[in-house]
Write a structure and sequence with these properties.
Blueprint: H1 14-29, H2 34-51, H3 60-71, H4 76-95, H5 127-142, H6 147-161, H7 173-184, H8 189-208, H9 220-225, H10 240-255, H11 260-274, H12 286-294, H13 302-321, H14 353-368, H15 373-387, H16 399-412, H17 415-434, H18 461-471, H19 476-488, H20 492-496, E1 503-504, E2 509-513, E3 519-523, H21 526-537, H22 539-543, H23 560-574, H24 582-595, H25 600-607, H26 612-615, H27 623-634
Antiparallel strand pairs: 1-2, 2-3
Length: about 625
């Protein structure tokens, strides 16, 4: 088990983690009290988790910016203790030869200069940039921005312009993007977002004060408010007809009652793709689109890439519908597929490569066994927690080692979590025994903690009536979500994956894909059938070429997170006790069947339970509650 002085948390760069433990051990060896060492450890963890870069890369400005942020939230005495801790750590690094230069002024007593904190602390190579940035920071002060905010802006701008000889008036969007990539490739996504936000504010200030005629970076919100014709793109295009067709598409979105924010964002994406493109929109092929994406910021998240793809896909489908071109260069499933996303492979760095190899082999076997993606990801995370920092080979794990781990887990997480992780380890070690890597599973059944057996949370008859009453005020699509889940008992993922072709309104049945890729037939109510029939007759649904039953405003399959949000908001508006979530509808469906006398095996079939034991949770409802429920539902 780790000592009280050791750093033991995720998110730290490896060399930072090593040096921090060396420093804390040196404090322990000096006979500092346990509480004192823990205070040092907590401060240093907070500091380096906030930056997520090597301790060698931290600059003086970053240290001062962090301390200024802490001063806004904590007492001056506490912040001085933080400064003392950082000074002690960096003194240790210099003395032990881990660092050549000391990033803090040894005589520094104040966190930042109280006067003129809005001015740059270092001279930029270009005097014009120096003047403009200082004017911008002073402008932020006159707008009433806090000292913490201004110091953060100052730090970002110093970092981006400290090696640029060229005036910011002459920088192109491509040059700005490359500079952000060069300076932030090792930093967190939040730091990159902060940089982009700062640069947009700077260039917006320059544009508004006529320092620049136009800006390569435009604040989306201000851009939308700058003109009443927010659905028209304003930038330059290599081919005028591209601009005309894009404006026609954005006007179409406006007529479809898309929000102003959505239309402006679509315009920005399309301008970015077509603005400097020398090809007519109808001549662009899939290969050229893929090449364009490959030239963009490599740190783009999958979500950002998919958002861009959705915009291009919707634009080209519009062009086909309007007969501007015969066929879209983008296929229907381009956005939703992600060939590089191997969720069954861990990409964490393991101290012992053999452990990583066997963990990936086990996860691969789960994938072959057709286990669900969410289950595999859950198993992967639990195995990473146990094996990432383990230096010994997995085959050497003993009963005592697992028992000590269980005892430690019991102190920090709930019984349910402990049992879940222990079950995952047991499954992994069983796999290793079957493959001949180990002789026995080093886990005993008696180690599992006794868990409370909660009764499923369902909706009472009055609550159910309220939900349906408030659902009538919702969009037709949202009413279908509620009614389908309530009358079929489906899981939210099963509804998410449901296609139009799988629904038979005449027989009121649907073929859904459950856990493990198992297909089963479910039934839904007459009310739900009528809603589905009306939904299919809507003009925008007829025009939509996506096979999904429920489609978002952007023309893609409606996401599960969006469905959960719709249901949660409905619960709040209906005044339901506790949070309302999709699985509560499933519990309501099962409980109602039970009150009407349905057998457990029938309920298991309807719910798609592979194991009858899972269904028996509904049998734990007290008999007097069932009688009361029966009388409420049946009279």
């Amino acid at each position: 088990m780790a000592g009280h002085w050791e750093v033991n948390c995720k998110g730290l760069v490896e060399d930072t983690h090593i040096v921090l433990n060396l420093y804390l051990k040196s404090l322990k060896d000096k006979d500092l009290s346990r509480d004192a060492v823990r205070r040092y450890r907590t401060t240093l963890q907070s500091f380096f988790l906030a930056h997520r870069v090597s301790y060698k890369s931290i600059t003086r400005d970053e240290v001062e910016a962090w301390l200024t942020q802490q001063r806004a939230q904590k007492k001056e005495r506490t912040v001085k203790d933080y400064l003392k801790t950082l000074r002690g750590f960096y003194n240790f690094c210099v003395q032990e030869g881990h660092l050549d230069n000391f990033p803090l002024n040894p005589n520094l007593q104040e966190i930042s200069t109280p006067d003129y904190y809005w001015e740059l602390k270092t001279n930029l190579p270009n005097p014009d940039n120096q003047l403009i940035v200082n004017q911008f920071l002073l402008h932020m002060k006159t707008l009433g921005r806090t000292e913490h905010t201004i110091v953060a802006l100052r730090t970002y701008l110093q970092r981006i312009f400290k090696e640029i000889d060229q005036s910011l008036r002459q920088l192109t969007l491509e040059e700005i993007e490359q500079r952000v990539i060069d300076t932030h490739q090792q930093r967190s996504e939040s730091a990159r977002n902060g940089m982009w936000s700062t640069l947009r504010s700077l260039y917006e200030y320059c544009w508004e004060n006529e320092i620049l005629e136009d800006t390569p970076l435009r604040n989306k919100r201000k851009f939308a408010e700058a003109t009443d014709l927010y659905w028209e793109v304003q930038g330059r295009f290599s081919i005028k007809e591209n601009k005309d067709v894009i404006n026609a598409f954005l006007l179409y979105l406006k007529n479809k009652r898309r929000t102003k924010k959505t239309i402006v964002e679509y315009g920005i994406v399309l301008h970015r793709f077509f603005g400097s493109n020398p090809l007519h929109f109808s001549q662009v092929d899939r290969k050229q689109i893929d090449e364009w994406f490959s030239l963009q910021d490599p740190d783009w998240s999958i979500r950002t890439i998919n958002n861009y793809k959705q915009v291009l896909r919707s634009f080209y489908f519009f062009c086909v519908r309007k007969e501007y071109m015969a066929k879209s260069p983008i296929d229907l499933f381009w956005v939703e597929k992600n060939a590089s996303k191997k969720y069954w492979v861990t990409d964490k760095v393991f101290r012992n490569p053999t452990n990583k190899e066997v963990v990936n082999e086990y996860l691969q076997s789960m994938k072959i066994s057709n286990m669900s993606e969410l289950t595999i990801i859950l198993y992967k995370r639990a195995l990473e927690i146990y094996f990432v920092r383990k230096e010994d080979d997995f085959s050497t794990v003993s009963f005592d080692e697992i028992l000590q781990w269980v005892i430690h887990q019991q102190k920090i997480v709930q019984a349910t979590t402990v049992n879940g992780r222990l079950s995952i380890l047991s499954s992994f070690f069983t796999f290793c025994v079957e493959e001949g890597y180990m002789e026995c599973v080093p886990i005993k059944k008696r180690w599992y903690m006794r868990e409370p057996r909660p009764i499923p949370r369902y909706l009472e008859k009055g609550e159910l009536a309220k939900v349906r009453q408030h659902a009538e005020k919702e969009l037709l699509r949202n009413r279908i979500i509620v009614e389908f889940l309530l009358s079929s008992g489906c899981r939210i993922r099963e509804l998410h994956l449901l296609d139009k072709k799988d629904v038979d309104i005449d027989t009121r049945t649907a073929r859904v894909m459950g856990k493990g890729g198992k297909i089963r037939e479910v039934h839904f109510s007459v009310t739900c059938a009528l809603l589905l029939e009306r939904y299919g007759e809507m003009e925008e649904v007829k025009e939509e070429e996506h096979p999904a039953l429920l489609v978002s405003r952007t023309g893609t399959r409606l996401g599960m997170s969006r469905m959960r949000k719709i249901i949660n908001q409905l619960g709040k508006s209906a005044g339901i006790t506790g949070s309302l979530y999709p699985h509560r509808f499933r519990h309501t469906f099962a409980t109602e069947l039970l009150t009407k006398g349905a057998e457990l095996d029938f309920i298991a079939d309807e719910l798609g339970h592979a194991n009858l034991e899972t269904t028996k949770i509904y049998a734990r409802i007290p008999k007097w509650k069932l009688i009361r429920l029966y009388r409420r539902h049946m009279g």
